[in-house]
Every structure is written in C-alpha cells, then in structure tokens.
Write a structure and sequence with these properties.
By secondary structure, the protein is α/β, with parallel strands linked by helices. It folds into 2 domains: 16-134, NAD(P)-binding Rossmann-like Domain (Rossmann fold), CATH 3.40.50.720; 139-330 and 358-383, Dihydrodipicolinate Reductase, domain 2. The chain contains 11 helices and 17 strands. The chain has helices spanning 24-35, 48-58, 67-71, 88-97, 112-125, 139-149, 180-183, 188-204, 317-320, 333-348, 359-378, and strands spanning 16-20, 39-44, 62-63, 78-81, 101-104, 129-130, 156-164, 208-216, 221-224, 239-242, 248-255, 260-266, 275-282, 285-290, 296-301, 305-309, 382-383. Helix 6 (139-149) packs across helix 8 (188-204). It binds nicotinamide-adenine-dinucleotide. Nicotinamide-adenine-dinucleotide is lined by residues 20-26, 44-46, 50, 67, 82-85, 87, 105-106, 132, 134, 176, 191, 229-230.
Length: 384
C-alpha cells in the first residue's frame, strides 16, 4: 500500500483508491470501496466542475481535473475505471504502467484486440486487475455453480436464457453507449450479453466455443441527448442521429464440452428492466436463476420442482460465504458489488479468492463479442 496512506493503529493502512467516472457505476464502486475500508483519494468526472461535485458526493479527498494525472498519482494504490468504454484501455494501460492495481469496468475495451493488449499488460505487471462481472457473486449463482461442479445434477445438457432490458426502447432514449466511438462496435451484446456469457461459463465451468448470431437495430434513429443518463433518460433536447450499434441479439452457441445453448440479448424489450435469467439443464435436474429474484434458485427434477432459498444453513460453503443477512432479508446487486470489491482488495493483500473475475475474464468476453459480430454479419457459425 502507498506510504502516503492514513495510519490506522493496529490495522493495515486503508487501500488508497481513485475513481474515474462518477456516473451510475462510479458511485457504486465508491460505496463498495468505502465499505471495504478503502480511502477514496481522488475522483475525476468528465469536466473539472463535475469532478468537484463528484468528489463531494462520493466522499473523496479531492477532485482531479485530468484522469491521466489521477491514475498515475503516487498516493493511489488501486484505480477504478468507471468511464464510457473507449477510455478503459488507455487509462488501464497508464495505471498498470504506473504500478497500480486496476478494477476496470466491462466491456474491458471497445474491441478484442485492445482487450487482449490489456490482458497482456495486466499479466506482465504482476498487479491485481479485475473486471466487475459481479453477477457471479449472487449466493444462488454460486449455489448453482457448486451443485453443477459436484456432479449432483448430472452432466450439463442444455444452457439457455437471456438478458433483456427496456431502457433504450424508444427513439427518445439515448446514451453514450449508442455511439460506437464511445461504446464500441457492439452495444447490447458487449454491454449486457458479456455479463450473461460470463455467468454461463462461470456456472457450468464450460466455455462457449462457437456462436451463430443474428442482430438487429430496431430503433434506426435516436435522439442525441447531451447528458442522457443510463437507465433514466433525460438530457437536453436533441437532434436525430442514425444508429449503427445493435439493439438486440439472438444467439445459438456450442460449448467446448459439446453442449448446445441459446440466448437473447435486448435493450428494447418493454417491461423488462434487468431481466438476466439463465437455466442450466442437466441429466438429473435443471437449475434456473433470475437476477430480479436473486434470493431463490429454481431446481427442477422429473418427480418434483422446488425453489431453494438463500438460507446459509442449506447452502454450499462458497454460496454461504456471501450470505450477508439472514434468509428473508433480501440482498442483491449492491452486495454482489461489495463482495467483488472486497475480494479484489483481498487479492491485493495476497489472497486468491475463488471466482474473482480477473482481466482474463474480460478478454474472454471480448473474444465472444467479436465472434458474435462476425457471425451476425456473415450469417454463419463462427469459432470464438
Ligand atoms: N459491472 C456492471 O454491472 C456495470 C453496470 C453499469 C455500467 N457498467 C460499465 O461502467 C461504465 C460506465 O457506465 P455508467 O452506466 O456508469 O455510465 P454513466 O454515463 O452513468 O457514467 C459515466 C461517467 O464517466 C464520466 N466521464 C466521461 N468522460 C470522462 C473522462 N474523460 N474522464 C473521467 N470521467 C469521464 C462521465 O462524466 C460519467 O459520470 C461502462 O463501461 C459500463 O459498461 C458496468
């Protein structure tokens, strides 16, 4: 840890953290960092005025006008990158070169080449570099994974599900994510499909080997609204602009283990807010997890079906570890984030937490996304 860190008698000095980007997810990172005992030494947003406002809001020691200055500042141990996607790679490379540990949001970069460069730089640096595929931290996801791994459900036969949202349903909805310069050539898939594929691979322990995808841009023109906020809309009155990034993807896939699967990704499905759902059909039983009902796991057998609750007394150790409050007191997304950040800091302290999503996981999903784009364009199966 940095020598400039505050001294805490009888304990290790707090991790000194930088937050770059202070929108939706920047605030979530800052909260989880504070809960893990970190000190937020600096924040940068898109303008000096916004950085100043964000420093106060997120409880940072000070605002930095320039992100490059913050990510290389001597007092910083860990850099959290929470900006639009096009800034992830340059800032992560600068931070790693300056010897920082890095938490970089997904998608790791705007394309697979850039993501691979980040993976290589992280490996060479010897620093901890993680990517918030935080749905891994739901106790009932961990329970599904543990039961599959133990062979309790029999061999995996079929994987299916999807990730549907509605916040970009109308031509009035806008986000920097729509612009390929800022978000990358893939929008819906890179943004949320990457979460689903990571989860599918995490639960099954198998990897997607080939994909056959079709994509559609069903809202061909959108308002261009300065200041539009993800999931909330708003922003200034707008001009129209043509849209080149996909609103939805329909995908078939085959795993390295020879299992077949299907999945749907959409940001234009009215009524679906954050509908990440995954079902793994095995020889003896099926398990199904729905992110909007994260306290339970559906377990289906031929003779009966049941809903398992997040009761630590009946969970596998890896799932019980993340049960923070007693069953019946709902926990969810924020607790997943807290656990992910705490595990990242534990790794910085020398631990090797099971399931911690490191940059390799982000690189992996960048390759899946690249294969989906090629497949959708050519109309054929593409190997990952
Ligand atoms: N892991 C997850 O579950 C999850 C959830 C949401 C978003 N994300 C990812 O987090 C990132 C940010 O998404 P968001 O929803 O918070 O977007 P957002 O628009 O709410 O926030 C982005 C922030 O970046 C800031 N910014 C823009 N340019 C900057 C610059 N040059 N320097 C510093 N800050 C700058 C903006 O001011 C804004 O505050 C994206 O990569 C997104 O994919 C991940």
């Amino acid at each position: 840890m940095s020598a400039a860190g505050a001294v805490v008698v009888g304990r290790r000095a707090p991790v000194q953290v930088a937050i770059v980007g202070a929108g939706f997810i920047g605030a979530v990172h800052a909260r989880s960092a504070r809960l893990a005992g970190a000190r937020i030494v600096g924040v940068t947003a898109s303008t000096p005025e916004r950085s100043e406002e964000a420093a106060g809001r997120l409880g940072a020691v000070r605002a930095y006008d320039v992100a490059e200055e913050l990510v290389t500042a001597p007092e910083v141990d860990v850099v959290h990158l929470c900006t639009p996607n096009h800034l992830h790679a340059p800032l992560a490379l600068a931070a790693l070169a300056a010897g920082k540990h890095v938490v970089c949001e997904k998608p790791l970069a705007v394309d697979a080449v850039q993501a691979a460069e980040l993976g290589t730089a992280a490996a060479a640096s010897g620093r901890v570099a993680t990517v918030p595929f935080v749905y891994r931290y739901h106790p009932m996801v961990l329970e599904a994974r543990a039961r599959v791994a133990a062979g309790e459900l029999g061999a995996v036969r079929l994987v299916h599900g999807g990730y549907l949202q509605d916040w970009l349903s109308t031509p009035e909805d806008d986000s920097w994510r729509v612009d390929p310069e800022l978000g990358g050539a893939s929008r819906a898939f890179a943004d949320i499909g990457s979460h689903w594929c990571d989860l599918a691979e995490f639960i099954t322990g198998d990897r997607i080997a080939a994909v056959c995808a079709q994509s559609a841009t069903v809202v061909p023109e959108r308002a261009q609204r300065a200041g539009a906020r993800p999931f909330q809309g708003g922003g200034d009155a707008a001009e129209r602009r043509p849209v080149s990034t996909e609103d939805l993807v329909v995908m078939l896939f085959r795993t390295e283990g020879g299992v077949l699967g299907t999945m749907l990704v959409s940001q234009v499905s009215p009524g679906r807010k954050n509908h990440l759902h995954i079902e793994v059909g095995c020889e003896l039983a099926s398990v199904r997890f729905e992110q909007e009902r994260p306290e339970t796991l559906w377990l289906g057998r031929r003779e009966r079906t049941e809903e398992l609750w997040r009761d630590p007394a009946h969970l596998s150790p890896s799932a019980a570890r993340h049960a923070i409050v007693p069953v019946g007191h709902p926990q969810g997304y924020l607790e997943c984030f807290d656990a992910f950040v705490a595990d990242t800091y534990a790794a910085i302290g020398g631990a090797d937490p099971d399931g911690l999503p490191r940059f390799a996981a982000g690189v992996r999903q960048a390759h899946v996304t690249a294969a989906v784009l090629v497949s959708a364009e050519r109309g054929e199966w593409v190997d990952v």
